[in-house]
Amino acid sequence: MTSPFLDSNVPGNPAYHFETVAPGTLSRVGWGERPGLLGATDLATQCVHAGSQPDAAYGSVVAPLYQTSTFAFTDLGTNGGFDYTRSGNPTRARLEEAIALLEGGAGATCTSTGMSAVLVALNLLPQGSRVLSTVDCYGGTYRTLEHARNTYGLQVDYLDLADLDALAKAWREDTRMVWVETPSNPLLRLTDIQAVAAFAHARGALVVVDNTFLSPIQQRPFELGADVVVHSTTKYLNGHSDVVGGAVVAAPGQDALAQRLAALNNLLGTSQAPHDTWLILRGLKTLKLRMEAHERNAQAVAEHLAQHPAVAKVNYPGLPSHPQHDLARRQQKGFGAMISFELKNPANVETVLRRLRWFALAESLGGIESLVAHPASMTHASMTPEARQRAGHFRWPHPALGWHRRAGRSHQRPQPGLGLILHRSHPCPVPIASITPTNSLDKPQWCASIASCPRVVPPSI
Ligand SMILES: Cc1ncc(COP(=O)(O)O)c(C=O)c1O
Question: Whole domain around residue 438: which residue ranges?
Answer without folding.
Answer: 287-396+410-450
